[in-house]
């Protein structure tokens, strides 16, 4: 199969089943990198990141979830985990990648403290090369690398988004949230940049349709760009209940409306064709470091 042939994650999964490949070294381009971001906090971004990761893993994909929230992240708590070590300890050399990875629901590998990646610029070149190899191995070992970025258009949020293949921008029906979502699209779009999608959280079907059409039309008119996907997730009481229980609602309430919506989103993402790039997420994040290692 030519490396430039478009293929979906389902094709990748079928190939792995046929060859019997498990965790191990593969080409970085075979890993889908997906950043989940939002223009403002409080829209359910991290909850979606956790539940989408589990839904993708339930399809048989090897999923790694990076908590890239600035400051104190909460992805591990939402997964029912209590982690002390995080990526900042890998960067300082106190721990290796295997020490900070935690196994979450459905076998999702959870990596806390991804915002500590920014400190790698202060490391000497030799340490940078060793760190990049560890990060690339993490990518090689998974089918999906999902990054839960911080909110807003902070520099690190933008770097995470631009290094990913696809970006999901989470919003709600509130006018301020919609405006912030458009501002995020404006900040991360580029001709050679990631595919952009919008998820309208806590919305009815009619609200989702109107909001997606509005954002799509505005983006096409003023930015000359469009959305790859536009989906909605309805309000569901199981969501706040699952947060309190520290258990993903796709596991706690598998037949709920919210779960069905997330499952449909996971199926769309897994089924979309993709053209693998020659570089992985971390190589795109640190192009100068990649040149040193090569």
Characterise the protein shown here.
This protein has helices at 9-19, 45-57, 75-78, 87-92, 97-100, 125-140, 155-163, 175-188, 205-222, 238-245, 249-252, 257-271, 281-285, 287-293, and strands spanning 32-38, 63-68, 102-103, 109-111, 144-151, 166-171, 195-201, 229-233. It has 14 helices and eight strands. Strand 7 (195-201), helix 9 (205-222) and strand 8 form a beta-alpha-beta unit. Strands 3-4-2-5-1-6-7-8 form an eight-stranded mixed sheet, with helices on both faces. By secondary structure, the protein is an alpha/beta fold.
List keywords for this structure.
294 residues, alpha/beta, Rossmann fold, eight-stranded mixed beta sheet, disordered C terminus
In a few lines, what is going on in this structure?
The chain contains 14 helices and eight strands. The chain has 294 residues and is an alpha/beta fold.
Q: Which fold name is given in CATH as the topology? A: Rossmann fold
**Backbone CA Rg:** 18 Å
Query: How would you sum up the major sheet?
Result: 8 strands, mixed
List the domain count as a whole number. Answer: 1
Outline the fold blueprint.
Elements: H1 9-19, E1 32-38, H2 45-57, E2 63-68, H3 75-78, H4 87-92, H5 97-100, E3 102-103, E4 109-111, H6 125-140, E5 144-151, H7 155-163, E6 166-171, H8 175-188, E7 195-201, H9 205-222, E8 229-233, H10 238-245, H11 249-252, H12 257-271, H13 281-285, H14 287-293
Parallel strand pairs: 1-5, 1-6, 2-4, 2-5, 6-7, 7-8
Antiparallel strand pairs: 3-4
Helix pairs in contact: 2-12, 6-14, 8-9
